[in-house]
Design a protein that fits this description.
The protein is of the alpha/beta class and about 325 residues long. It folds into 2 domains: about 250 residues, 3-Layer(aba) Sandwich (Rossmann fold); about 80 residues, TATA-Binding Protein, CATH 3.30.310.10. The protein has 12 helices and 14 strands. Belongs to the HesA/MoeB/ThiF family. GO terms for molecular function: nucleotidyltransferase activity; sulfotransferase activity; thiosulfate-cyanide sulfurtransferase activity; ubiquitin-like modifier activating enzyme activity.
Length: about 325
């Protein structure tokens, strides 16, 4: 009896499907509620390799729904991909992992995700999904959209050359402009979103034919809907239409407001770790340093500088407010 005996016995996969799965590489963008559930499921399914990118660290409010994290991770502000990698390795010692503590943009996707057979969306923002969508259709790599908030969930596969893309379908997607920080979320909604994402992923990896459907519902109200969307191709779409330009792969975002976090992220800073420490010491600003980032406060705002050049300014309401604080600190 093998490790994947029960999966092989399932009529939808079998030995041939499992063989495909065990030679596959899956990319996961985001390592929060959706990302941790997906990462564990993908690891247990037997895939050869997982590539994970996430820009954030573990906080105590994450523990209610984000599996793979422990209280100690929140206490130490462990980067999410670091905690995720540790737990996945304890589940499967033979699993190949490639992780990035970074913001997911076009350059990172092109550097790390071209090896993937499928990409799973576990992000919390619309802009990153547009970049994933363009990348997917430019390089012919399927991706699976997923989202959840309150008690609602949604999942949808986008397959280049087969289905319309995310842009074409946006008009019928359930409105997800609320955030977990403002209206909350319950674990069953996360489980349903990732279950349908995982189902689509396993079908793609095992080369099982299927009809792509947009799936959404409300677990609390026990509502569920599945819609076909194959006829929604937009000939003028810049991602999958007749004249493809993939504009979101060209867009460079220097600062952005993180979803529901009262936090602004600055992407590329013109100084290294030594220069930052020297500047903080000259300004008599106390700081803490670990292998991943430097934490300090300025004007009572917590800040975190990640090695590699990203800066998070917490407790701000707008990008402009963060910019003013940034310029007061660095000139």
């Amino acid at each position: 009896m093998t490790r994947y005996d029960r999966q092989i016995k399932f009529y939808g996969i079998g030995e041939s499907g499992q063989s495909f799965i065990e030679n596959a590489t899956v990319g996961i963008v985001g390592c929060g509620a959706l990302g941790t559930h997906l990462a564990e499921s993908i690891a247990r399914s037997g895939v050869k390799k997982i590539v994970i990118v996430d820009r954030d660290y573990v906080e105590v409010s994450n523990l209610q729904r984000q599996s793979l994290f422990k209280e100690s991770d929140a206490e130490l502000s462990t980067p999410k991909v670091v905690a995720c990698e540790r737990e996945l390795k304890s589940i499967r010692s033979d699993l190949e992992l490639e992780t990035y503590i970074a913001h997911c943009d076009a350059s990172l996707l092109e550097a790390a995700f071209l090896q993937c057979d499928c990409i799973l969306d576990a992000t919390d923002n619309f802009e990153t999904r547009l970049v994933i969508n363009d990348f997917s259709y430019k390089y012919n790599i399927p991706w699976i959209y997923g989202a959840c908030v309150e008690s609602t969930y949604v999942a949808c596969p986008f397959i280049p050359g087969v289905t319309p893309c995310f842009n074409c379908v946006m008009g019928i997607l359930p409105v997800m402009n609320r955030t977990c920080d403002t209206v909350g979320i319950i674990e069953p909604a996360v489980n349903l979103a990732t279950s349908y994402q995982m189902m689509y992923c396993m079908k793609i990896l095992s080369k099982t034919p299927f009809d792509a459907k947009l799936i959404f519902g409300d677990v609390w109200q026990m509502d569920h809907t599945a819609l076909k969307f194959s006829k929604m191709f937009n000939e003028k779409c810049t991602t999958c239409g007749d004249d493809k330009t993939f504009p979101n792969l060209l867009f460079k975002q220097t600062e952005t407001m993180l979803c529901g976090r009262d936090t602004v992220q600055f992407m590329t800073l013109n100084f290294n770790e030594e220069e930052l420490i020297r500047h903080l010491e000259e300004q008599h600003i106390m700081y803490n340093i670990n292998p991943y980032f430097i934490r300090f406060k300025f004007m009572d705002r917590p800040m975190i500088w990640f090695k590699g050049g990203r800066l998070l300014i917490h407790e701000v309401k707008t990008v402009n407010e963060a910019k003013k604080i940034y310029h007061q600190l660095f000139g």
